[in-house]
Structures are given as structure tokens and as C-alpha cells.
What does this fold into?
Amino acid sequence: MTKKKVAFSFLIFGLLLVYFLLLSNILASPITLRGIIISDCKILTNEGKTYKIFNPEKPFSIPDNIGKKVEVLGVVDDVEGEIGITLNSLKILIDLSNARRS
It folds into this structure.
């Protein structure tokens, strides 16, 4: 094989590897969403989109925070036609308008 063919083969292999890593979310970057937890495993964002929470178990204690405004950081993914997020972190946001009333 000539050097050009070897270099081209490595280029194609590298591009395919990056493509498959992106498909498997290994290289996916986390995003931040703000919204309200509406059930044990769903969040309604401020933009009106609903995301399934793929990992609602501890340490996030999602059932204890239903109805609260939150900010979540995680990787969004489409699994079997359902868009969801795998949480990396969860922060409860303080609703100042409700806090002043109480």
C-alpha cells in the first residue's frame, strides 16, 4: 500500500470512530434546562418541552421535588422515540414571588 492509501484509511477510520462516539453520547456535551418537575420522571421546561428523566433515582430525590422549579444539567438523548435527559446535577431554584408571600 502506498502512503496515501494508508493515510486515507486512517482518516476514514477516524471519522467513523468520531461518528459512532457521537451517536453513543460519549462525546455529547451536557446542557442546562430550567423548569418544573411534573412527575417522578418528567420535567417541563420553561420553553414548554417535556423531558423524561432517565435516572431519577438517588442522589437527586426527584419524588421529593415534584412541583418545584429546578435547574438540571445533563445529556439529552432520544431513546426509543422518547426525548429525555440523563442528569448530572439538579439544583432547586427559589421562587422569589412565592417566598415573599409566605
Summary: Residues 3-23 form the longest helix (21 residues). The helical segments are 3-23, 96-101. DSSP finds two helices and five strands in the chain.
